[in-house]
Amino acid sequence: MVNSRIGALEDQLEALQNAGAADATIQAAQQAVWDAHRYTNRALAEEPLRLITYVANQEHPYSEVITADYIMVNPYINDAFAAGASFTDNQDPNEWKPAAISSGYRDRTENLPHAGILTSPMYLARYPSTDTNRNRARARWTYYFFLGVDIEGLAVRPMNGDSLMDVENPTLNNPDCAVCHEIMDPVAGAFQNWGDDGQFRDQCGWYTDTMAEECDRDALPWVGYKEFGAPYVAGDLWYRDMRSPGFNTSLLPSNENDTSLRWLGQQMASDDRFAEGTVRFWFKGILGREPTPLPGNSGDIYFNSDMAAHELDKLYINQLATAFTSGTAGTGENGPYNLKDLIVEMIASPLFRANGSNTSLSIDEQYALGHTGTGRLLTPEQLNRKIHALIGDHWQHVWNADRNQLIEDFYGFYGGIDSDGVTDRNTEINALMATVIERMSNEMACNIVIDEFETPAAQRLLFRSASSTDTPESDAGASAIRTTLTELIERLWGPDSATTEEIDAAYELFVALRNERIDNNATTVLATNNDSATNDENDEFCSLDWGEPGAIVEDSNQVLRPWMGVMVYLLSDYKMLYL
User: Fold this and answer.
1) Do the strands 396-397 and 203-204 form a parallel or antiparallel pair, or are they unpaired?
2) The whole model's pTM is what?
């Protein structure tokens, strides 16, 4: 698909370059082309998530995510799809509206048969097909995401290859294969109109004798199926050597051939498993883990505990699904299948709110309940939002304040995903991630302390109760330091964390760091510049203000570096990194 906006901008850029326009003008045009590419690609990737957001915000039934007769577009993919939507600001990538793809797609004169996420270009591209896979991967993930059914876990795969010998078309005729394929293949057939890369009917059907340039389209490959001697018959939309398109025991009606995924979405939305599948889909997003699987080894020492954990999760999943279906979840005012109400119900459940510190439970009970409640490692995105909310800024690049190092430079190192080759987030911190946190806390602590103490006390966020003259030698100074430590711990770690033990430990760290500097006659210079370059050889680089009004250049009381050490300690603690 071609984005007309990008094409027009590239033409304008070429014209400017050929005309010898000023460098600034060419650079602005190049930036416009780059922004158009970037915003278009990002919008394509976000579209399924924007659909879920729209359905939730509009209080529509959640089933609409697989039945919607529209696609979400912003100004950029609206151009790509020629969807015809209008926007308040055609340059705003964050303005989204529902629309239908029609004449702008493969010379169609009518709207595409949308079916929510099932027909989303990104969903189809994320799970591409092949001439041999034949949409089975799409069927597998559709079952998993929307009905909570893991087809690959339905049966044990045969270990003996002989069971597959001498059987023609084993996925259709061999019982060892059919146990999964009789469920999966009809749904694969429901994707019959969508090609391997997610395009609608992107292949030609059987050519006429005149080899006309235009032909009836389908999504079936030529090589291996349409070539001479293959089972293809002109007009076919699906393979004749596979089960017919359908769902459960229902076959796709012939009048739904053009709208097979729309039919499938409606069938799945009315299936009894849809509510439980929705709970299971959101389970990890809300609770930070997958539901406990059914244990398979009865001889395992923790079998009973694992079974208890599995049954506990299953109990609450069933209760949540029932409330979701009946419309009694959350406030119960928004009707059945309301996503917001389901999320409220999940957060209010013991699975989210359970406290794992109950030592009166037996060892087996503690093991079974060990994964309930919170306590999971924050993702890079979550940690970034937490830091920004608590401190007021992100981890800046030393030479570029706008660059977010946690989300950009160190994103992959700290367990980020690219939704392609890396799709699973780290749930446990490793040595590399710990190194990232060490660097982040050291770099952030310096700027945080300097910026705070260069700001009038009444306008500070973190150090309102301390000044650069407060030292442990005086009662007033010691009291101000302890008060500030209490405020910092409560803000960064949570109110329950500001215990006497934690405050004492942080105070002792502050005193020890300060005494070490004094005992070693450390420099009091924080950051030198051309106007005060008297101790360059002893300079401990922190922040170059280059003579800005109010800049702190020297710390005669040796308290700012200890405060930085305390901030490193607080920012790198597990209470900051975990939920």
Assistant:
1) unpaired
2) 0.81
